[in-house]
Amino acid sequence: MTTTTQQTTTGSPGEGPRLKSEGLYTRTLPGYFPPALLAACGIVVSGVFVLFGGFHPVPVVVVSALVFLAAITGISASVENRRRAADRLVTGIVYCCFAVAIIPLISLLTTVVINGMDRLNWYFLTVSMNGVIPSMDAGGVNHAIVGTLVMTGLATAISVPIGLMTAVYVVEYGRGRLKQAITFFVDVMTGIPSIVAGLFVVALWILLFGPGNTNGLAGAIALSVLMIPVVVRSSEEMLRLVPTELREASYALGVPKWLTIVKVVLPTAVAGLTTGIILALARVIGETAPLILTAGMASTRIQGNPLEGDMMSLPVYIYKAVRDMGLSGEAGVYAEERAWAAALTLILLVMLLFLTARLVSRFLSPQARG
User: Fold this and answer.
1) What is the pTM of this model?
2) Which domain, by its residues, includes 217?
3) Reduced to 3 DSSP states, what percent helix, strand and coil does the chain have, rounded to the nearest 5?
4) DSSP string, 146-193
5) What would the pLDDT profile of 262-321 be if each residue is shown by its tens digit?
6) Is residue 174 part of a domain?
7) 110 with 167, same domain?
8) Cβ atoms within 10 A of the Cβ of 120, count?
9) 341-369: string of b/e by CB count within 10 Å (b at 16+)?
């Protein structure tokens, strides 16, 4: 039972004295108690499962989490108070949800790293599959890396100006039905399946150049169709976060609106804009279906010109390798090794792009420029 004392305090003018209840001491669980209780619950639950001969990691973790939540809530309610108990319960649920979300990611990365490190080396990264047959223990992924960089680079060069200027119009200038129409169609385009974007570009290419003309430029256009709405939505949200006071201060100094956007709004939001662009790039760098239709999948040599026929990409390379896993003998084994190594290469490439974007946004931010 918590001992309390009553204190007389002076209220605001016109009010009488108020009574303030203060605790002489507050009982609180020590900081090490929740992790210790979690470990104890895990040990006890594991022992019970072993005792009954049905030990398995997944049910042990689930049951341990449920027992821990019930135990920490009951102990906190009896030792502390109901409010702290509810807080500990909700905090435990949040941590459990985080673990549920992060476990598949860790499992995926671990699987790709373990299986991909066997073949991932400098030779694999610097040679192509030109002249290599499936049964040969040779070849690499260099042509797919070059194709991925070329097509995603072109897609970024197409999508970023269009998406950024559209977001600027919607946030700074847009009014009435035109703004609503742009927002509506951007939302619709965000949910378009990637295969539909590929079919759209194929139909456009057939009308312009005739059937069978697949190349890297067509693949880049297909990726830009998927990338533009993501850039628009992310840039729009970042521009809305710029305080209105900054714009008004610039207007008060007589700076025109377009110059305020260029010199004040965009530099202030550059970190968020860069993050949104990289998220859009990560959205399209792993697309396979539109590139099979538009860029083809027959190229085995290093191709840096997007207008000279088929261009290979890392997702399509992985798709071809997985398809070749059904071959008999050593060809299937080599194809599986190439698929895992190419998947690891794609993950590393995306991580490198994210790191580069973070560095660029840090150097371009107003704080870094002084």
Assistant:
1) 0.79
2) 124-364
3) 70, 5, 25
4) HHHHHHHHHHHHHHHHHHHHHHHIIIII--HHHHHHHHHHHHHHHT--
5) 988 998 888 888 888 888 888 899 889 899 988 888 888 888 888 888 899 999 999 999
6) yes
7) no
8) 21
9) bbbbbbbebbeebeeebeeebeeeeeeee
